[in-house]
Amino acid sequence: MVSRVVSILCVLFFLVSMSVSVxxxxxxxxxxxxxxxxxxxxxEVELIKPEELPPTPPINEELKExxxxxxxxxxxxDEATKNRQIQTALKNAGYDPGAIDGKIGAKTKKAIKDFQTxxxxxxxxxxxxxxxxxxxxxxxxxxxxxxxxxx
Length: 151
Fold this sequence. Notes:
By secondary structure, this protein is mainly α. Helix content is 48%, strand content 0%.
């Protein structure tokens, strides 16, 4: 008898839970909002219009006045591109480095030494920071109105 009562109670519980589930499916449930404790502590947010933002990066007066050939160019990280930059700068400065192939051969070394001598640098045929600082002015020269310089 006890087992029969337990079985009937289990069936009733199952039917009630199923009917509640079916009824809940037909209802639309509102998503829960934030807890009341968080609503009161929301920070104030100030919206800024895009036209009110400063330009990025900030442009100072010195950069506005510089012409392209006066802007510093960094040497490329890989050796072949770095060598092509050096050869292009030498060619723009009026020194013949030979073919712009990314290889520092005898002609390019001679052009570097000639450039260093005329520029008042130690003529060692190597492009260090001082030589690059002087050559740098000629790297972008091909893009300016004058074109390449001739000596």
